[in-house]
Structure formats: C-alpha cells, structure tokens
Amino acid sequence: MSQWIYFFDLWGTAVFALSGALAAGRHRMDPFGVIVLASVTAVGGGSIRDALIGATPVFWIRDPNYIIVILATVLACLLLVRRPRKVPEYILPVADAFGLALFTVIGAEKALNMGLSGMIAVVMGLITGVGGGIIRDLLCRQVPMVLRTEVYATASIIGGIGYTVSLAYGMGEKMALFLAMASALLIRLSAIKWHLSLPAFDLKTKRE
C-alpha cells in the first residue's frame, strides 16, 4: 500500500470511528461502549474483507496505528462533544458518508492488489464501506442503514465500479481514487440533503 493510500485509510478509520462514537453518544453508552462501537464501525468492514480474501492477520492486528487512531478519535469526541452543546443531526450521516466513500475505494484497491477481478473488487469495496456500519446499527438495535430504502449501498457500488473501470481504461491510480471517492460521496450527500431513496419492496399479504 502506497503512503498516500495508507494516509487515506487512517483518515477513513478516524471518520468511521467518529461515526460510531457519535452513535454511541446518541444511545447514551458509557466510555467503554463508545470505544467498542467506534472500533467495530471503523474496522468491522475491513476485517470482514481481509478474512474473505485471505489477508490475515487482518490489517489492524498487523498495524496497531489503526487502534491508536480509533482511541485518539474516541478521546477527542468524549472531550469535545459534550452537553450543553447539542450535536447537529446531520453530523452523523455526513461523517458516515465520508467514511463510506473512503473505505469503498480502499477496499476495492486492496482486492485488486490481491489479484482479484474487478467484480470481486467492487464487492470487497462494498463490504469494506458498509460492514462496520451494519455492525454499529445492529448493536444500536436499529435496522442497518444499508437495508433501508436510503441511497447508501448504491453509492458504494457506483464508487467501486468507477474506481475499477477507471483503472481498467488506464487512468492513473490517484486520479481514479479521487474520482471514485468524489462520486460515491456526492451521491450519498445528495441523498442525505434531498432525502433520495430507492423504491421499497412492499409485499403486502392479501387478507382472506
């Protein structure tokens, strides 16, 4: 992994850790609960990805900097985000959107470096982007965001496809990464701002 991609990976870890910490605050968890929720949100998707593609031990076991970033993010959140200052409603989904865009491309990039196909790279990008959020939402006893009608997984898939296709057509790695991240982020933020959603599969049983 090149140095600048590694930097983006750590940045994405901090962003998703913040997302998990804010979700823990919404559910009034204690400091240990905040650490747990921030950690699973930040490294959950990447851990599933590494286990599936055989990149073991998983990344955060091989590099403790990820744990340091998570703990530092949690500490900053606990110190800075306190009452009576109320955290705006949009902060959590926006932080999650940035994490989704970053981790989608990082996951796809890692799969391609392992010699896997473009289709599998898109799937690994999706798992990396949404896996931690699924675990976070389940621990908070919520329906995972990716399973709701919101445009969420779609943004990740489009970002992953954009990255793999751009590389296949000879675009430079940096440009492909920025383009894919920007597209996934733009789609997700647009969905948040204008409440865009996919049609629900509403299967109602007919009463006798």
Automatic annotation (TrEMBL):
Residue intervals of the Glycine transporter domain: 7-80, 94-165
Domain of life: Bacteria
Family: Belongs to the UPF0126 family.
InterPro entries for the chain: Gly_transporter
Subcellular localization: Cell membrane
Protein name, entry field: Trimeric intracellular cation channel family protein
Keyword annotations of the record: Cell membrane, Membrane, Transmembrane, Transmembrane helix
Residue intervals passing through the bilayer: 6-25, 32-52, 64-81, 90-108, 114-139, 151-169, 175-196
A Pfam family assignment: Gly_transporter
Membrane topology reported for the UniProt record: Multi-pass membrane protein
